User: Fold this.
Amino acid sequence: MLSASASYIAAPAAVGIALPEANPSLSITSSLGITFPINLVFGIPTYYAIAQFLII
Assistant:
């Protein structure tokens, strides 16, 4: 989860350094638009399954 959360911060910064002429709002939108749904679809069920496994 931490590495996925770090991508929200790291991706726009990396794009800003690599492509100074790039639109920063595009990199922020794309990092959130791609990573956030993946975290919702795969992250929450995975963490729930791990929690259930550890509790039982």
Q: What stands out?
A: Residues 24-55 form the longest helix (32 residues). Helices lie at 2-18, 24-55. The chain has a mean pLDDT of 80. The CA atoms of residues 37 and 43 lie 9 Å apart.
